[in-house]
Amino acid sequence: MIFSKVKNSTYTKASNWYRQFGLPAGFLLLSFLLMILPLEGFISSVKAVLAYVFIPQVRAAHSVSQYAQGVSHTVQELLQAHQENAQLKQEIETAHLLSAQAQDIFAENARLTELLQLKTSFPWKGVWAKVAYREPTQWNTVVIDKGSAHGIQERSAVIAAQDGKEGLAGVVIEVTESTAKVLLVRDEDFSAAVRLESGDEGLLVGDGPRAVQIKYIPLLAQVKKGDKVYTSSSSSVFPAGILVGEVSAVHERDSFLTALTVQVAPLIRSSAVQEVFIILDKGAH
Amino acid sequence: MLSAAKLILLFMLACVFHWALASAFAPWGFAVNSMLVFITAFCAILKPPFAYSMAFVGGLFLDFFGTKLFGNNAFTFTICACLICNLAPRFDFDELFPQMVAVFVLTWLAGLLNALLLYSFASSSLWPGFWDLLGGAVLDAVLAPIVFWLVRRILGKAPLCRQV
Predict the structure, then answer these.
(1) What is this model's ipTM?
(2) B70–A34: do the CB atoms touch at under 8 Å?
């Protein structure tokens, strides 16, 4: 009897200890192991398995999100109709609201016309996609709503439009059937061979929150602030001639340097990327 | 069995909320982390073994989208779960104020810890910025009472929950 009580008490203590310390310590150890393992190989396999679990949820979430946007739009339309009905009795307010609505429609029309013009001017075969998701802590990565089912492959170049000009937005780094992950120009893992207006070539690299830079430019190159930067024909990923941005600062030529480094202001801001064009056939240029 | 199904349903809801809110607030630059709010609610309401498991899986969900490092969110969320599971007996998480304060503080803690882990393991700086994180923390805190109510409402007095 006493032995049984002691045994029960020991079991309860062990169980409490396991719940209080063992389980979280196990999870922390597991997370730590996942962090120290290289992203290729085992982690890729883990991600592939997790894709089966999470992608259906993400797809459902995306559909719900789009449906909610549709509902919100319908509610907005209903509210507008109600407002317009009330405004018929108040001519002045009606005029103000109609004017505001007209401005919105003109703005939307201008934006869509701009996109259509850009689309017809692109010399590459590709597909338009919308940014479906931005992970809150990953500002330089976006997930778009098109994937391998639409012909998108890894290392496809991604273009976006801003202020009426098209420019390099990033590169596709992961693809699922209906989504793809795009690494934007500012990301520190991003790099591309680029050509300056002067004809000199260098390697464009992102630097996270800091300025994008072009490295390995010949020391005697005539680079000045405001020079346009384009993708180079020597790039194996990007078609030549896509505008990347313009030179925002040139580092002083120190005697010990073997190459010049310049800072670049990308044309496409990471936070402004909403609709993108993915180049499917680089060779069509 | 029914409780487990409810828990899975809640996790799916958390994924939907996280996706929808992150997409909705991204253009304004706010780092809303509604998955963290759900995990805080789970840790305050569920028994520790289930709370830790949900925190770990929730972290993996966010890690799934990361490109630099895998496991940092799982680590961060487990740390947050440890804090809340140990604080739950001392605070009344049925009140609005403790819910909001806990979520506000954990959003900051998770943001700082994530930035530190990314810097340490991937030599990468993905600090979202003071004002973006503050905006996200405030939105998370505002969201907390709704999420706590939803979790409490769906789970009721399920066997998975802490005994009051």
Answers:
(1) 0.84
(2) yes
